[in-house]
Amino acid sequence: DSGVTQTPKHLITATGQRVTLRCSPRSGDLSVYWYQQSLDQGLQFLIQYYNGEERAKGNILERFSAQQFPDLHSELNLSSLELGDSALYFCASSVDPSPDYEQYFGPGTRLTVT
Amino acid sequence: GESVGLHLPTLSVQEGDNSIINCAYSNSASDYFIWYKQESGKGPQFIIDIRSNMDKRQGQRVTVLLNKTVKHLSLQIAATQPGDSAVYFCAESQSSGGGADGLTFGKGTHLIIQP
């Protein structure tokens, strides 16, 4: 158990809909990362937050957004969903925002868009 | 864009043998490399890391080798056990800045342990 929690574990929704994925980082970690894992693209970095502020952006679509709240939990919002958005979404946390600090991954949320 | 990739999608080894998983990277600015293990239904789990100022780093039953000349990274697992069955990813980043602070992952190698 990494100490990172994600909810829900599974999510099935229809195209065009909007969903929110939630992540609680490990106790003491201020940095949160979101990754998408799909069969064709592999694991891709989406976005990073540190202590409530956006720190870095990766391959995140404009239809996707995220935020980190004062209690450090984070939410990833996915809107106007398409079939291709079906994937595993992982949250990871680390104590420091620098990339050379170990990132601890949560169990993921499996999103299925039908 | 530049990315990290893996040579083989599947590697099958006998239990007790040593496993070697390879990874090629193309971003010469990368200075930090990590190996992750992902078991079915779980998130990636950190195994070992190495910085670009090193050629080799050892952990418990694992060794990572870095060849910056040919931009190659490998993970060696000694005395492979059934619990080592998983998908292994290499990842890279630029800890000195100049890019996003997220990791760039390779496609993954599925390690299968034969009894």
Description:
The complex is a heterodimer of chains A (114) and B (115). With 114 residues, chain A is mostly beta strands. Chain A has strands at residues 5-7, 10-13, 19-24, 31-38, 42-50, 53-57, 64-68, 74-78, 87-94, 104-105, 109-113. Helix content of chain B is 0%, strand content 52%. Chain B has strands at residues 4-6, 10-14, 19-25, 32-38, 45-51, 56-58, 62-67, 72-77, 86-93, 104-105, 109-114. In chain B, the strands form two sheets. In chain B, strands 2, 4, 5, 9, 10 and 11 form a six-stranded mixed beta sheet that branches. A five-stranded antiparallel beta sheet of chain B has the order 1-3-8-7-6, with no helix packed on it. Classes of the chains: A mainly beta (114), B mainly beta (115). The A-B interface holds A 2, 4, 33, 35, 42-48, 55-58, 90, 92, 97-100, 102-108 and B 32, 36, 41-46, 49, 51, 89, 91, 93-95, 100-108.
Task: Give a brief description.
Chain A is mainly beta and 114 residues long.
Radius of gyration of chain A: 13 Å
Query: How are helices and strands ordered from N to C of chain A?
Result: EEEEEEEEEEE
Which residue ranges of chain A are poorly predicted, with pLDDT under 50 across at least 5 consecutive positions? none
Give the low-pLDDT segments of chain B: none
Give the tally of β-strands of chain B.
Answer: 11
CA(first)-CA(last) distance of chain B: 40 Å
- Major sheet of chain A: 7 strands, mixed
Shape of chain A: globular
Largest interface, Cβ cutoff 8 Å: A-B, 28 and 24 residues
Task: Tell me the series of helices and strands of chain B, N- to C-terminal.
Answer: EEEEEEEEEEE
SSE layout:
The complex is a heterodimer of chains A (114) and B (115).
Chain A: E1 5-7, E2 10-13, E3 19-24, E4 31-38, E5 42-50, E6 53-57, E7 64-68, E8 74-78, E9 87-94, E10 104-105, E11 109-113
Parallel strand pairs in A: 2-11
Antiparallel strand pairs in A: 1-3, 3-8, 4-5, 4-9, 5-6, 7-8, 9-10, 9-11
Chain B: E1 4-6, E2 10-14, E3 19-25, E4 32-38, E5 45-51, E6 56-58, E7 62-67, E8 72-77, E9 86-93, E10 104-105, E11 109-114
Parallel strand pairs in B: 2-11
Antiparallel strand pairs in B: 1-3, 3-8, 4-5, 4-9, 6-7, 7-8, 9-10, 9-11
